[in-house]
Amino acid sequence: MQIEKNVLKKHRVIKSSILNEIDEKSSKILQILAIGDRKIDSAIKKSNINRFEAKKIIKNLIDKNILIKEYSREEPIKKIHPKQKIKKSLKRYHISHKIKFKNPFFRFWFRYIQPNIKDIKEENFQKILKNIEEDFENFISFIFEELSNELIKERFNDILSTGSYWDKKVELDILTFFEGGKVLVGECKWKNSKICKKTLTSLQKKCKVANIDVDIFALFSKSGFSNELLKKKDKNLLLFDLEDLKEWSTKKSPYRKKEKLPYSFEF
């Protein structure tokens, strides 16, 4: 297995070459971010590190190009008139931004390797590999979401903004605003079963809760779609599968720059 050969057996080389400047507290926060909901406030709370110090650590990791701050697109609560009273629960609520790893390998390392470094040093590889195998679908699902968002950028040239969306009530994998006012919302499913109409219905309900008027719904699936969805003739519904991503990824564009990563490996 490539992970055992290129990561587990080379963990000392990897750590010394790209992760040697990560101290214990930074490592703790990175591990939480690698397995959690990526919200800054949640990570700080779980770390049990002083809030001021934790924020400083996160800023330092962003400056080192290990993390990227993903700003919430939720609109702040606005008073309709000056005397309007706001519920106590809403007064306490504040918008939380998220964090993502600049390089997916860093996320892999702090999700699977760093928390199990003792077993790896003792070469208990089978235990680690089993853990990775059982959880790997969850790890890949976020990457699939990011790639799906990139595909949207490739297919449309009149985008104002696109990315994930979250607020106090719902989370959406993709929310895209176009020039002219049109809105696209997407759901990404990395699972070994076809997406059925139930997923679309659930997505539509989430948009109503978030008070988002949607013109186009887009579904992204690892394993394809049910016949009911495939036969659904709706110009406002887009269906994408792995073949679409494969076609996009193999396109050679002179404008797409390849980033040189500090370390890479094959699964």
User: Taking all residues together, what is the mean pLDDT?
Assistant: 87
- Span between N and C termini? 7 Å
Q: How does CATH name the architecture of the largest domain?
A: Orthogonal Bundle
**Uncertain residue segments:** 252-267
- Largest beta-sheet characterization: 5 strands, mixed
Radius of gyration based on Cα positions: 21 Å
The sequence of SSEs as H and E is: HHHHHEHEHHHEEEHEHEH
Strand order of the largest sheet: 3-4-5-6-7
The total of helices stands at 12
What's the assembly state of these chains? Answer: single chain
| CATH fold call of the largest domain | Arc Repressor Mutant, subunit A
Structural class: alpha/beta
Number of strands: 7
Describe the structure.
The protein has about 270 residues and is of the alpha/beta class. It folds into two domains: about 1-125, Arc Repressor Mutant, subunit A; about 145-250, Trna Endonuclease, Chain: A, domain 1 (3-Layer(aba) Sandwich). Helices cover about 45% and strands about 15% of the residues. It has helices spanning about 1-10, 10-20, 25-35, 40-45, 50-65, 90, 105-115, 115-120, 125-155, 195-210, 225-230, 240-250; strands spanning about 65-70, 100, 160-165, 170-180, 185-190, 215-220, 235-240.
